[in-house]
Amino acid sequence: MKNIARLAATVLATLSLLTGAAQAQETIRLGVSFFPFHSADNTKPDILTAIAPEIEAAGYKVEKTVFLNYAEANPALANREIDGNLIQHKLYMDIFNDRTGAKLAIAQAVYHATFALYSGAYSSLDAIPDGETVFIPNDGVNTARALLLLQSAGLVELGEGAIYEASPADITANPRNLKFVQTPLTATAGTYDEAGRKLAVMYPTFARSLELEGDAERLYVEERNGITDAYAISFAVNAKDLDDPKTKAVVQALRSDAAAEFLKQNYGWASVPAR
């Protein structure tokens, strides 16, 4: 009887500890907008699902807040409606901080998104005719990135010092007399398609809406260097939360083999892990 009583006491103590651990588990609220952090198809995994076990082992559970308009994720973070977001690179964040006085910071780079000049009409840069139209993003930071890509492709030249804030006004040489039409980042793929798929600079995430994956219709891909590395899609938090245990738990999980493997297996056609 005494042995049974001891066993019962041990089981109850264990259950009590497990219940207490479950009750102590805190929620980390993360803002997401696009794949690989959020999949509109619930049958497909996302990277947060892949790293959930590691975050849970640290005593937390992830709660995703989906922003159909990714521009709403930074105001939500600045207002502490969420604990962090996964929708941007440092340059985009810096512009938001400058415009609003917010103090967001990058906690961890996650991946380098492939950025490319697409064309379904031309098979080489040399085939681009004089006066052709190129659709590029209109949101400032991605406008500059598109122009830097076109410069590295030899299609335009930008003025000295025109880097992360470059605009079409900074073009000093345009030997093909290319015309630039700026469109919202999320609308570029549709506009490109409607115009006959001539030329557009965009991300594979949006090209995917046209069933373009891998190298399909990629005429020129952005080169990785000290300038373009600043465009790594990252985990952002409020600066004062950089040392918060929640932040550290997410950072550790994003640096894990599980995160890198997920990106290689499920998003290799559009990115390279940044760790």
TrEMBL record:
<protein>
    <submittedName>
        <fullName>D-methionine transport system substrate-binding protein</fullName>
    </submittedName>
</protein>
<keyword id="KW-0564">Palmitate</keyword>
<keyword id="KW-0472">Membrane</keyword>
<keyword id="KW-0732">Signal</keyword>
<keyword id="KW-0449">Lipoprotein</keyword>
<dbReference type="GO" id="GO:0016020">
    <property type="term" value="C:membrane"/>
</dbReference>
<comment type="similarity">
    <text>Belongs to the NlpA lipoprotein family.</text>
</comment>
<feature type="signal peptide">
    <location>
        <begin position="1"/>
        <end position="24"/>
    </location>
</feature>
<dbReference type="Pfam" id="PF03180">
    <property type="entry name" value="Lipoprotein_9"/>
</dbReference>
<dbReference type="InterPro" id="IPR004872">
    <property type="entry name" value="Lipoprotein_NlpA"/>
</dbReference>
